[in-house]
Amino acid sequence: MLGGWALLLLKSFSCKERLKFLGLKFLECLYFLDIYSIIPNSKDPLKVCILRRLRQLEF
């Protein structure tokens, strides 16, 4: 379930951005919600993959 701050963030998106966000896979959503706790130089391959996907979606 999305946290309160995440819902506020989602509400601030345009309609197109909401569709992109909601189109993410469940695991990608979990990493997106946890993005601020990721160490910038993280070597975790899954996190790197998710970050690349988010960049492709222009978040």
Count the domains: 1
Beta-strand content bin: under 5%
Count of DSSP H/I helices = 4
Spans of at least 5 consecutive residues with low confidence: none
Reported for the largest beta sheet, the result is:
none
- DSSP strand tally: 0
Identify the overall geometry.
Answer: globular
Oligomer: single chain
- Structural classification: mainly alpha
- The mean pLDDT is 61
Distance between the termini: 20 Å
How do the helices and strands follow one another from N- to C-terminus? HHHH
What does this structure look like?
The protein has 59 residues and is an all-alpha fold. The protein has one domain (4-56). The protein is built from four helices and no strands. The mean pLDDT is 61.
Put the structure in a nutshell:
The chain is mostly helical. The protein is 63% helix and 0% strand.
